[in-house]
Amino acid sequence: MLLADFIAALDQLAAEGPARIAAATSLDEWTAVRNALVGRQSGTLSGIMEGLGKLPKEDRREAGQRANTVKQALESALEERRGAIAASSATGGPVLDLSMPGRREWVGTVHPVSLVIDEVIAIFRELGFTIALGPEAETGWYNFGALNFPEDHPAMDLHDTLYLGDDAVLRTHTSPVQVRTLQTYPPPVRVLAPGNVYRRDFFDASHAPMFAQIEGLVVDEGVTFADLKATLTHFARRFFSATTRTRFRPSFFPFTEPSAEMDVECGVCHGSGCAVCKQSGWVEILGSGMVHPAVLEAAGLDSEKYTGWAFGMGPARTAISRYGIPDIRILYDSDVRFLEQFAR
Ligand code: DAH
């Protein structure tokens, strides 16, 4: 092939191109003209460019430059024409650019913490539990005093609790709902109290100043620690799996006596030890205990007649170990790329 032939073909394209571009009056026609002239696969220009390789080496540089000049001229004429078509159809009718990428449909999903709360509620509902709610702004008495916290308990420190005024706090746990429920409803009581609680914590990978808790409370005549253990073990088997192992460890809370924390076998390593369970094979999922007689009395019940048990769990912690979420802050980011993974 000769350089002259190559350039003649380019010149012809350069001469014809502008008229063809000007003839396009809609975005559809414009797209067709663009594809025909400078389309990557089958456009006239790409056809001509295929000849480049067949030219003698010494001619290729000049030919390449000429081709580029023609390409740029066509492209700027195309751009200008597209603007003109868009402007005229803006006054004449709706702009419909079929070359635009399609719009993504977003589908709402339930937040993983809410998934856990819903599931916990569903399991306890089968056992006859109902829902009780209380205020997030509490008095010191409901949040601490009625729950048998001693006057000088460190939790009451300005350091740990967010005070709203002299006697108002943002509740630091859902346990005050125990007292409010017992004041309102006579036993037998079987309730779950889900809700948000607040603490003066830094926001880091494992702490947040606001998080959800689920409180559970059972009060009746003749309720024992065996009821606590059986119910919570049943819950763990329903929530995790029928073969999930559990263990109770003695613990302390002012409002329960005796107190116990329940661990479940780590769902990631099944007990052999991993980063999620800090090599222990166990993950703590809740605090529990027999309701302290002082709490029953504070709520106006006869602690000789009634006994009860209670528990408190953090659904965010549970979601983290169940779904293997590496940083608690992800739960607060509302990043759809994360949340979408929980679509059902
Ligand atoms: N209120 C406790 C906390 O926030 C959790 C808790 C422990 C609640 C034991 C209970 C319980 O009802 O019996 O850490």
Unreliable residue stretches: none
In DSSP terms (H or I, runs of 4 or more residues), the helix count works out at: 11
Shape: elongated
In total, the number of domains comes to 2
* Beta-strand residue fraction: 15-25%
- CATH class annotation of the largest domain: Alpha Beta
User: Can you tell me the CATH superfamily of the largest domain?
Assistant: Bira Bifunctional Protein, Domain 2
CATH topology of the largest domain: BirA Bifunctional Protein, domain 2
Beta strand count: 9
Could you give a short account of the major beta sheet?
A: 7 strands, mixed
Question: Could you give the topology of this structure?
Answer:
Blueprint: H1 3-23, H2 27-38, H3 44-49, H4 57-92, H5 112-125, E1 130-131, E2 137-139, H6 140-143, E3 168-170, H7 176-184, E4 189-198, E5 210-220, H8 225-239, E6 246-253, E7 256-265, E8 282-291, H9 293-298, E9 307-313, H10 315-323, H11 336-339
Helix pairs in contact: 1-2, 1-4, 2-4, 5-10
This protein binds 3,4-dihydroxyphenylalanine.
Describe the fold and architecture.
With 344 residues, this protein is an alpha+beta fold. It has two domains: 3-87, no CATH class; 112-342, BirA Bifunctional Protein, domain 2 (2-Layer Sandwich). Helix content is 40%, strand content 19%. The chain has eleven helices and nine strands. The chain has helices at residues 3-23, 27-38, 44-49, 57-92, 112-125, 140-143, 176-184, 225-239, 293-298, 315-323, 336-339; strands spanning 130-131, 137-139, 168-170, 189-198, 210-220, 246-253, 256-265, 282-291, 307-313. The protein has a seven-stranded mixed beta sheet with strand order 1-4-5-9-8-7-6, sandwiched between helices. Helix 1 (3-23) packs antiparallel against helix 2 and helix 5 (112-125) packs across helix 10 (315-323). The protein is elongated and about 110 Å long. The two termini are 62 Å apart. The model has no long low-confidence stretch (mean pLDDT 90). The protein binds 3,4-dihydroxyphenylalanine. Residues 173, 175, 215, 253, 256, 287-289, 310-312 line the site of 3,4-dihydroxyphenylalanine.
